[in-house]
Amino acid sequence: MKFDNLLFVGFMGSGKSSVARYVAKALKRQFLDTDTMIESSEGRTIPEIFAQEGEPYFRACEKEVATWLAHDVHNTIVSTGGGFAIFQPICECGTILYLESSFEEIVARLNQNELSKRPLLQDMDQARALFEKRQGIYESVAHYRIDGSGSVTQASQRVLAFLESL
Ligand code: S3P
Domains in the chain, start-ordered, CATH in brackets? Predict the structure, then answer.
């Protein structure tokens, strides 16, 4: 495969983690999730970090992860939090793949438990506005865009077929 790190970007709930994990397994590459890394190094959940420290602190944690990815990580499939591509110099970290989903699909996929893990997804009007604001940014930072609709298996197979064609 003609890429080093491959980073999945996209809005919250677009299936980045599940699809990236599936793709990593299929390609026998290491898998990392930026949110999971921050939660384990902080020893608390993302809602706790947002509530106790605020969003700027969380973005500073993401920045440390971005620097580490850019300098010390190779041949890895990375799932990023929905704001990572917005706030961090992500192009330095590897090849960027935007997993695209409509806002309606995202909302339909997320149950109450999944919603409760996402501080920026508490108010649906604000979430839609954020989605609309970010869409163009994901498009502009991504090297590739893949349709993330359907099941995890369907979206993952689409990604794998595309990567095969590179
Ligand atoms: C965020 C997305 C979340 C998580 C945090 C902030 C965002 O990750 O990083 O709640 O700014 O879009 P997911 O995209 O995995 O939900």
Answer: 6-165 (3.40.50.300)
